[in-house]
Task: inverse folding
């Protein structure tokens, strides 16, 4: 924090952000509200979003609203024709497929995908004709969430030819294990607050990156009122006796008190039982939805990957980790929420591990520096994929990965040693993993492009990587090859940085 404060005074705002983010990463369990606000983040409920995320969300909403006004009338007419005669239907499908503006996709989802099976199938046909990650995500949504099995099957088929990175990550994050329910041992004691009955349950499930635990305590003081007029004797075990110090009234009144005590005890037992049943029903209903959602997602993943439809989510978490050559640092975090405690939503970040060997030059504002010598706060050359802007961006995190077999990639006349999953920007294709580079592919560089000459098995060695603020990429090698930083890339329709094919 002191380094961040110094950078702020020196007006080194990029480096200030890098050091603040490092504090958050190093102490993920602390309350970082002040630091997050200092980074410009905005809190929505228990979730913190960056200003960029809020702006993107607002811009997306504005585009959708504008598109709805533009396309609503036309799409409703097309929907009516889809439900008409065969010739009207076929003509409407042709009209639908002529719409190539990606901004029309959410309007089609709203007006067609939920209307009826015929309209939903036509929308899937239109999505299939559209390039770009927006259409891919629309197909993925229909493949899992459509009300009609025929639509789900039709939407899943074209996903085989789409970039997995555009739709698999949301699926992986939705896969969860069913909730397990374990009752806690019932506890009771007598203290300064009287008779206290403590019951509880532990609900647990596993996701791709967390073990989620909910602890539900019920601390019940209602018996105190029910036991007025009695004392508790511990000799020979706890038991109740009439309090001799309390003056007794008429027998009828005493009988009424006894009856009220019994009624209160029965009410307490009934309410406890009702809560147990409610929790049991909630867990059962949630697990039924979880099993069905897992079944649909795994069905799509099995179809696009060619693997068996293994129902265990852990199998698919591992498959995706192997496919992307990534892993979670320090294992999964255990997130515990207590019913009677206000708990903030954890901001856990996966740290993916695709890296370069020591000695790989990185382009910085101080010249080319070996990647293992880069420090948090250093400025590296980065490029905005959407606009093409080149500028210096601070490093917010550095990583070291244990030794593993690497690849030796020859680009132009330069050799780069990297893990198989590290992504290079290939002109016309986007982010491509090192193992998928082909001779003749052109890797984007600081000054243009360089052709891949070959990909061979390299040495076994430790590797290093960076997390770069904002643009999330940097340039390596004497030539300056554009590579992705640690997190997985965001979907994009850019063919080269700054140029989008529509």
Result:
């Amino acid at each position: 924090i002191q380094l961040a404060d110094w950078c702020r005074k020196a007006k080194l705002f990029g480096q200030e952000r890098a050091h603040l983010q490092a504090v958050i990463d190093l102490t993920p369990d602390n309350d970082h509200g002040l630091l997050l606000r200092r980074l410009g983040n905005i809190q929505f409920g228990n979730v913190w979003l960056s200003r960029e995320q809020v702006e993107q969300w607002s811009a997306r909403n504005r585009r959708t609203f504008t598109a709805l006004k533009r396309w609503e009338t036309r799409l409703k007419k097309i929907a009516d024709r889809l439900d008409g005669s065969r010739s009207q239907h076929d003509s409407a499908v042709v009209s639908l497929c002529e719409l190539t503006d990606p901004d029309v996709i959410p309007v089609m989802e709203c007006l067609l995908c939920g209307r009826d099976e015929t309209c939903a199938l036509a929308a899937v046909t239109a999505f299939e004709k559209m390039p770009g990650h927006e259409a891919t995500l629309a197909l993925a949504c229909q493949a899992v969430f459509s009300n009609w099995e025929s639509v789900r099957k039709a939407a899943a088929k074209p996903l085989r030819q789409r970039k997995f990175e555009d739709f698999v990550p949301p699926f992986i994050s939705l896969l969860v294990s069913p909730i397990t329910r374990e009752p806690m041992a019932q506890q009771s004691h007598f203290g300064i607050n009287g008779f206290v009955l403590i019951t509880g349950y532990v609900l647990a499930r596993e996701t791709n990156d967390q073990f989620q635990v909910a602890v539900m305590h019920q601390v019940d003081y209602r018996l105190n009122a029910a036991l007025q007029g009695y004392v508790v004797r511990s000799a020979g075990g706890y038991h109740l006796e009439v309090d001799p110090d309390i003056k007794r009234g008429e027998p009828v009144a005493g009988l009424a008190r006894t009856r009220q005590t019994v009624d209160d005890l029965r009410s307490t037992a009934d309410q406890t039982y009702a809560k147990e049943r409610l929790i049991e029903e909630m867990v059962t209903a949630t697990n039924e939805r979880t099993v069905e959602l897992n079944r649909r997602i795994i069905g799509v993943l099995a179809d696009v990957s060619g693997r068996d439809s293994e129902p265990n989510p852990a199998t698919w978490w591992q498959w995706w980790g192997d496919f992307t050559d990534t892993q979670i640092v320090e294992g999964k975090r255990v997130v515990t929420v207590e019913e009677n405690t206000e708990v903030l939503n954890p901001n856990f970040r996966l740290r993916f591990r695709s890296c370069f060997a020591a000695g790989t030059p990185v382009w910085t504002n101080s010249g080319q520096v070996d990647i293992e010598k880069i420090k948090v706060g250093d400025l590296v050359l980065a490029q905005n994929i959407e606009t093409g802007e080149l500028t210096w961006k601070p490093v917010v995190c550095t990583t070291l990965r244990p030794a593993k077999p690497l690849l030796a990639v020859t680009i132009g006349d330069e050799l780069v040693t990297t893990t198989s999953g590290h992504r290079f920007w290939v002109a016309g294709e986007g982010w491509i993993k090192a193992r998928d580079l082909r001779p003749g592919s052109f890797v984007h560089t600081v000054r243009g492009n360089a052709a891949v000459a070959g990909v061979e098995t390299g040495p076994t060695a430790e590797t290093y990587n960076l997390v770069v603020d904002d643009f999330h990429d940097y340039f390596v090698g004497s030539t300056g090859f554009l590579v992705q930083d640690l997190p997985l890339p965001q979907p994009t329709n850019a063919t080269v940085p700054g140029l989008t094919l529509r």
Q: What stands out?
A: Residues 121 and 150 are 8 Å apart (CA to CA).
